[in-house]
Amino acid sequence: MRMQWSLFLNLLSLPAPFVWMKIGPEGYKYYGPDVPDIWILGAYILGKDTRWPPIGFAWKWQLAFILITAFCTWRYLRKPNKLLLWFNLCWLILFPLWLEIYSEGVINNSDGADLSVYPMPGLLLWAGMLGLHGVELWKSRSRVS
Length: 145
Prior knowledge:
- It is a single chain.
- By secondary structure, the protein is α+β, with helices and mostly antiparallel strands.
- It has a single domain (2-139), classed as Butyryl-CoA Dehydrogenase, subunit A, domain 3 (Up-down Bundle), CATH 1.20.140.
- It has five helices and four strands.
- The chain has a four-stranded antiparallel sheet.
- The longest helix is centred in the middle third of the chain and has 27 residues, at 82-108.
- The radius of gyration is 17 Å and the shape is elongated.
- The mean pLDDT is 93.
């Protein structure tokens, strides 16, 4: 049941916001009143030009990460294999580092937009998946795969 919940949280994270970057007063002064805030979602980014190669790569990489994690969880549900759990756990542990690099890249590419970064609910979904994977590995430690 834990892994079914993990798969559900994983799929729920696709449209979920992970980071909100609010444009500050200097950003409005530099770009004008119509500049949008930036939202890093699980499967996309809003408020940035996704045709720019680094941003295009970043959102596609994050989408691939989520889909790969979902696929491995689904495979584990069909045929339990601890290697899949370890693979997912490694991805999940590295995700905050990736999100930090992604956010910093967006900030550095936003030329004076005066961004304030706010964590969003997607991080709770990630924490839930991480916890469920950890518990599943702990509970399966005596089972042979």
